[in-house]
Every structure is written in structure tokens, then in C-alpha cells.
Write a structure and sequence with these properties.
The protein is an alpha/beta fold. It is built from 8 helices and 7 strands; from the N terminus they run E-H-E-E-H-E-H-E-H-H-E-H-H-H-E. The structure holds NADP nicotinamide-adenine-dinucleotide phosphate.
Length: about 230
């Protein structure tokens, strides 16, 4: 397989592991990054997904080099944790603008080529906290829960066009995003995870790659947890 794959936020963390998994399987992988030096081995396009013009420019560059995007992994995301009474409107809307509206921007643009090709795979990276909730993360949890309704609506809207939309909901994964947690917070989280540990980014990447593979051709609108059992029953 040598498909044109785009992973947003593929320059580090879970996104980088996903990008590597596709590249190792022989796909042509583009990643987005916002600043600094992107990792080698991919088509790195500078793109902030909160800016529609940058998204458009990124897609043009990818299409010119790799052809229309056939597999999109909307992975880029941010947290801005705060208790509700201290959460400013900007804390709330900026997280929603990246995690939800940013995902809308990249998915909508990818769909143009997928409709033409009459096939496509879209995987959205949500989070266990989207369904479980998390004190101090009302903005983040709301944005991640919204991705489920977004994906399932599109699964219904575009299933007849042979485009699948699935959601992966990781639990706690060892990346920069979780490095900010204190030892006490980490121990508390691990205590609630049946598998008793954090995930490695590669464990999330394996599920994403499966959802984009031929083996997953009849899966759409699914929410797949990769959370060590943390979210069981939700
Ligand atoms: N780590 C976890 O425990 C965990 C658990 C559940 C879900 N997730 C989700 O998994 C995804 C990846 O998380 P991670 O742990 O790998 O986080 P990370 O290490 O903090 O990386 C976040 C990635 O998102 C990119 N990004 C953020 N805002 C962006 C924007 N406006 N435009 C373009 N790119 C942007 C970052 O790019 P820059 O390098 O340019 O900043 C970076 O590549 C996120 O959606 C996160 O919510 C993570």
C-alpha cells in the first residue's frame, strides 16, 4: 500500500507514532507542525489548524506532492485545564477551536478528494475523558465528546460514498501532554487503570492503522477505546 496519508500534529507524541506506523507500512505520509524542526522522513507542512487559510495551503502542498489525501488522522489537540469557576471564555473557546473546529476544517477539506475518489478513511483522536468526564477539563472533555457526534453524523452522511469515520479514544498516554501531571496525579490515574500503566503512543498508533486498513473495511461510526480499561462501560 502506498496511500497519501495526513496526520495532523504528526511532529510529536501520539501523532508521530501514528505517522511512523503508516510510513513503516509503505504509505506516503504528510504531517503538520507549527514551529521548530519537524522530524525527518515525512512531508512536513507548516499548519495551524485554527487557521482555515493555512489548512488550505497545507492541503495544496500535500496534493501536489503525494496526491489527494486518502487517509486522514485528525490528531492535533490541546488542553487548557481549569476549574469551571476559573475557566475564562478564551480557555473554553480556544480548546474547542483546535480540538473540534480545527478537526472540522481538516476533515471538510479532505473530503473533497475522498468524494472524488469514492473512498476514504478518517480517524479522529478523541479521549477517554470525552465520555468519562474529568474534573478541571470541561473544555477538553466537551471537545472530545463532540468528536463522537461529529464522526457518527459523517459516517451516516458519507457511508454511501465509501468513506469511513471512526474515533479512537486513548486513555493516558506517555507524551508531553501528560508530562505536566505531578507524580501524585500519575499514581492516582494508574491506580484506576485496570492494566495498571500508561499507554505507549505506539499502542494507539496500531489501532489507528488497523482502522485505516482493508481489515476494517466494514467499521464506521465506531469509538474504539485504547485506554487499558479505564473507560469501561462508558
Ligand atoms: N497523551 C494523552 O494521554 C492523550 C490521551 C487521550 C487523547 N489524547 C489526544 O491525542 C492527541 C495527541 O496528543 P499528544 O499526547 O500526542 O499531545 P502532544 O504531545 O501535546 O502533541 C499535540 C500535537 O498537536 C499539535 N497541535 C496542537 N494544536 C495545534 C494546532 N492549533 N494546529 C496544528 N497542530 C496543533 C501539536 O503541534 P505543535 O508541536 O506545533 O505544538 C502536537 O503535534 C490529542 O488530540 C490529544 O487530545 C492524548
Amino acid at each position: 500500500m502506498s496511500r497519501s496519508v495526513l496526520v495532523t500534529g504528526g511532529n510529536r507524541g501520539i501523532g508521530l507514532a501514528i505517522a511512523r506506523a503508516f510510513a513503516d507500512a509503505g504509505d506516503k505520509v504528510a504531517i503538520t507542525y507549527r514551529s521548530g524542526e519537524p522530524p525527518a522522513g515525512f512531508l512536513a507542512v507548516k499548519c495551524d489548524i485554527t487557521d482555515a487559510e493555512q489548512v488550505e495551503r497545507a492541503y495544496k502542498e500535500i496534493e501536489d506532492t503525494h496526491g489527494p489525501v486518502e487517509v486522514l488522522v485528525a490528531n492535533a489537540g490541546v488542553t487548557k485545564d481549569q476549574l469551571l469557576m476559573r475557566m475564562s471564555e478564551e480557555d473554553f473557546t480556544s480548546v474547542l477551536d483546535t480540538n473540534l473546529t480545527g478537526t472540522f476544517r481538516v476533515v471538510k477539506r479532505a473530503n473533497r478528494g475522498m468524494l472524488r475518489a469514492k473512498k476514504g478513511r478518517v480517524v479522529l483522536i478523541s479521549s477517554v475523558v470525552g465520555l468519562l468526564g474529568s474534573a478541571g477539563q470541561a473544555n477538553y472533555a466537551a471537545s472530545k465528546a463532540a468528536l463522537v457526534g461529529f464522526a457518527r453524523s459523517l459516517a451516516r452522511e458519507l457511508g454511501s460514498r465509501n468513506i469511513t469515520f471512526n474515533v479512537v479514544a486513548p486513555g493516558f498516554v506517555d507524551t508531553d501532554m501528560t508530562k505536566v501531571l505531578t507524580d501524585e496525579q500519575r499514581a492516582n490515574i494508574v491506580g484506576q487503570v485496570p492494566l495498571g500503566r500508561y499507554a505507549q503512543p505506539e499502542e494507539v498508533a496500531a489501532t489507528v492503522r488497523f482502522l485505516a486498513s482493508d481489515d476494517a473495511s466494514y467499521i464506521t461510526g465506531a469509538v474504539i477505546p485504547v485506554d487499558g480499561g479505564l473507560g469501561m462501560g462508558h
